[in-house]
Design a protein that fits this description.
Keywords: ATP-binding, Nucleotide-binding, Transport. The protein has about 260 residues and is an alpha/beta fold. The protein contains 10 helices and 10 strands.
């Protein structure tokens, strides 16, 4: 069974002056453990679709199914990681990564210990009592990922989570996130403007048209790339050829 199904999603934003359609007739399915990326020009509705999947926005038309059941905001199945880490500056890292558990009323000692153990797996051993301002940007994003994983979501939504980082940190974090999600067999959806990032991390890539956003092409990343961690995939001979294919596709969309 698909873990996620997006069925004929359309969304229009209404203002006093106009109605702007951001998405039109978007449908896709995602299997458990898949890593999916959304690519397309700015304003094509990628983040809007992520917000609809998260239950933050109700679509004008269509529906979201999680494991065959219609999505509703009461379900605790979605984890959302953004470009900014949004750690609470007045709370310690330990308090930040367990805040989702506390909000959900989960007082399970084992789950809190697992969240703290994830900090060590992420190379953040010993920072539990520190505050966000004491950590680098990359360390803060790793802590934000631990916070997202702590509630054991079925699906992770990643909205350009590496774009604010320097390039070296970004590449290291791509590898770390990819390996962690594979280890825990998590399903993930990534919104990015970075073609290389999408290729290196994904199993499939959905390319969106300009506004209104529609899926115009689905790219199946070859096994020669998707079985390697992102940094190694970037070095593979098949990487540049696929990059060129996607680059030309996006150029055609912009020219159209």
């Amino acid at each position: 069974m698909n873990v996620l199904a997006v069925e004929q999603i359309s969304h229009t934003y209404f203002t006093k002056q106009a109605a702007v359609t951001a998405l039109e007739h978007v449908s896709l399915t995602i299997e458990k453990g898949e890593f999916i990326s959304f690519l397309g020009p700015s304003g094509c509705g990628k983040t809007t679709l992520l917000s609809i999947i998260a239950g933050l926005i109700q679509p004008t038309r269509g529906r979201i199914l999680v494991e065959g059941k219609e999505m509703n905001t009461k379900q605790k199945v979605i984890g959302y990681m953004l470009q900014q880490d949004y750690l609470f500056p007045w709370k310690t890292i330990e308090e930040n990564v367990t805040i989702g558990l506390n909000i959900m009323g989960i007082n399970d000692y084992a789950k809190k210990e697992k969240a703290l153990a994830l900090l060590t797996e992420m190379g953040l051993s010993g920072v539990e009592k520190q505050y966000p301002y004491q950590l680098s940007g990359g360390m803060r994003q790793r802590a934000a990922l631990v916070r997202t994983l702590a509630t054991d979501p079925k699906i992770l939504l990643l909205d350009e989570p590496f774009s604010a980082l320097d390039y070296q940190t970004k590449l290291k974090l791509e590898d770390l996130v990819w390996k962690t999600l594979k280890q825990y067999n998590k399903t993930a959806l990534l919104v990015t403007h970075d073609i290389g990032e999408a290729i290196a991390m994904s199993d499939r890539i959905f390319i969106f048209s300009a506004k209104p956003g529609r899926i115009v092409r689905t790219i199946n990343v070859p096994e020669t790339l998707r079985t390697h961690p992102p940094f190694a995939a970037r070095q593979h001979v098949d990487f540049s050829s696929l990059f060129q294919v996607i680059w030309k596709e996006l150029e055609n969309i912009e020219q159209a």
